[in-house]
Amino acid sequence: MKEPSSAHREAWPSQAADALRDLRGGMRLIVDAVRSGLDHVESVHGRVASVEPPVRGARVGRPTSGVGALVYRGLRGTTDLAGGALDLVLASFQAWLLDPQRERLPSEPMPSREAAVAMLNALLGDHLHRTENPLAIPLELRTRIAEARPRVLLLVHDIARSDLHWHLGPQDQAQALADALGSTPVYALYNSGRPVAATGRELAAELEVLLAHWRVPLQGVALLGHGMGGLVLRSALQQAQRAGMAWPAHVRQLVFLGTPHLGAAPSGDLLTRLGFGPVGALAPLARLGRRRSPGMRDFLEGRVAEEEPRAGVPSPPAPVVLPTGVPAYAIAGAIGDGLGDGLVTIESALGRHPTAGLDLLLPPEHRWVIQGVDHFGLLRSEAAFLKMRQWLST
Q1: Which helix (H) or strand (E) holds 372?
Q2: Closest alpha carbon to 218 in 229, 226, 207
Q3: In contact, 126 and 118? CB cutoff 8 Å
Q4: Which tens digits make up the pLDDT trace of 242-280?
Q5: What's the rounded Cα separation, in Å, for the pair 20 and 180?
Q6: Which residue of 97, 171, 262, 331 is 20 to 30 Å from 312, comparing CA positions?
């Protein structure tokens, strides 16, 4: 039998600790789901107790007092106690695995795990963040090469995706684009279930620190956002400029790839088209928030700023504004009836609208449509690669 390599033996504690961390996050979600289920049962119980005439001639006690209240309080307490005890055991084992004397090599990200967690964050990211669940993705800027070049290419992924999603085809198109431009690729990873404005604010702050300490003098920064990533970039730039940050002055180009500037067409099978599989299987998890996540709503509505609450009055479409002084470009895909890429219409991806204030006002030569390419196919399209290289080389 072949002996495991030294690297494999040294890396396994980190891999096992990562698996335990995910397990703890999953167990917390189960506990949250049980508590949500108890809330639903208690609500039904309360409605039944108020029905006239009483059920089979017997009055059902209200769950807010007496024995009913004790039962529901006990069930919640037992759920919390069992969940907390199991989390403590798993956390203790995780800490043992992460003992500095045991750790040798960092574990490499697993694409299947990263994809599953990214999808879960798109659906429940606000809940995961609010409850400090280990499965919540913190915003992070990653580089995969040690060399720092004078030019930087920042890549921001789409909803329900991770930074690994740029490598969809036989090669990493983002890395190839960075190499062609002589740039260092920097990949943003973020929780796409949180509001775009919150993510944009965090991205702006992280870029301020990263670029202020870049190891060589900067000659320019190019920004590339796919889908929701384009909304996040718009939000980050706007907030950074309002805050007087230094990094926007280094930005030379901004490219949108299938970004829903005017929103995405709402559809019942949105989750399926995003790669979640049958929506029904996720319904119990979706009920934790009893709604779409803020990130999904922002994607559907093309929102980049915080929504101002207006009681009982629908918010009007916000003006579509690009950051000042930054040349912007947009690429749209077209499949089927030729009206869009399967998720985002051509008009939305190009920021084209007949109403004043809702149009991006991009020059015609800064807008381009690729026929026969869907939303995620834009990432592996040779035509898109060549067009972006042309724009970003100017």
Answers
A1: none
A2: 207
A3: no
A4: 999 999 999 999 999 999 999 997 655 566 677 665 544
A5: 40
A6: 262
Burial per residue of 126-148, b for 16 or more beta-carbon CB atoms within 10 angstroms, e otherwise: bbbbebebbbbbebebeeeeeee
Phi, psi of 253 (to 5 degrees): -145, 155
CATH number at residue 359: 3.40.50.1820
Which residues of the chain fall below pLDDT 70? 1-29, 31-109, 169-170, 266-272, 275-291, 308-319
Quote the pTM value. Answer: 0.75
The residues, any chain, with a CB within 8 Å of residue 119's CB and separated by 6 or more, are 160, 274, 275, 276
Asked if the structure places residue 106 within a domain, the reply is no
Domain tally, the chain: 2
Let me know whether 78 and 214 are in one domain: no
At a CB cut-off of 8 Å and minimum separation 6, what does 127 contact?
32, 133, 193, 288, 289, 293
List, for residues 234-243, the tens digit of each pLDDT value: 999 999 999 9
- What residue ranges in 191-311 does DSSP mark as E strands? 220-226, 251-257
Sheet containing 183-189, strands listed edge to edge, beginning at the edge strand earlier in sequence: 140-142, 183-189, 151-156, 220-226, 251-257, 328-334, 367-371
Distance CA 228, CA 375 (A): 11
Q: Amino acid identity, residue 356?
A: A
User: 75: left (phi > 0), else alpha (psi -120 to 50), else beta?
Assistant: alpha
